[in-house]
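Hey,
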Amino acid sequence: MTRLTGHILTPHGFVSGAIEFDGGRVARIDGAPVDADSVRESSQPKILPGFIDLHVHGGGGRDIMEGGDSATRVAELHVRHGTTALLATTMTAPMADLEIAFGGLQEACAGRGPRAARILGVHLEGPYINAGKLGAQPNYARPFNAGELERLNEMAPIRLITVAPEVPGNMEALVALVGAGFKVQIGHTLGSYEDGVQALARGAGGFTHLFNAMTALHHREPGMVGAALAHATYSEIIPDLLHAHPGAIRVALRSIPCLYCVTDSTAGAGMPDGEYRLGRHRVTKCLGGVRLADGTLAGSSLTMDQALRNLVDELGLSLPEASRSVCTHAADSLGYTDRGRLAPGSWADVVMLDRDLKLTDVYVEGAPIERVPHAG
């Protein structure tokens, strides 16, 4: 039995008291309610649900597309920044490259390394996207292929698929995927507002990195961004303050009830400036971001602890609001009711923060994670 004391964020707000967990799950929370505004300035530890990141390409110098043990090494980097569960995210690539990545993901998804975050499954970001809106994706976009998807899902569980619904055949594929139990998001798309509304009506659950790699909002052509802001319940956003202006993030927070943060992190996360791999690309980490040679943003070096601080310190969210954006909404989008919150019976995924919102301790499914010094 593990017992932690401090200001604990429950689904009903902060309490000052103790949380106990046993067998990997929360057993008990006791305490008196405390006003959220006073928690930040208190010297007591702030105990929050562990962060959940549904868009992770790499970290610690490793890239998910490498295969082998790369996913475990990536999960080890991100857990030291408070991410207790994540989706390993693949790039648009030839089938042979995807099979290498999924070969490594098979074991990583089946178990959890002792110093790693839980890998919940795979986010397949492409290849069923629009070749005209690749962003930093390599140019291997192609029509939906059910046999290809079945083969990959047999190797490692696919939890989320990014699709451009306007590509011929993809709207019908979206319906089939949702019917088969996959979660589908709209992204890397040249689709119209009408395409987005139709895709949502047919079961798409949200949007991949809102604002990025999609048709923009114009008052006479609202585009895919307009469809998201007007109709979405869930959407990713990258709060590194490079991928989206703080003002744009504020618009999204007011428009989308369950906007959740992702890092879209690359191998450069947690590493010094330099060159790193992103699928078949070489990317450069510098000036706080990650870019292709032509200057295109190519994922990020963001970690979820910094995302939380950006939400609170730069955007002015309360700690409960920010916590929901870095864990609860993401869990809910995938249908997990026992992650992303601290309540009896939930997984004991816990982060402890100091007054400056810096991590002091991390627990994954009740197990303490040794945090070691890191660069970046």
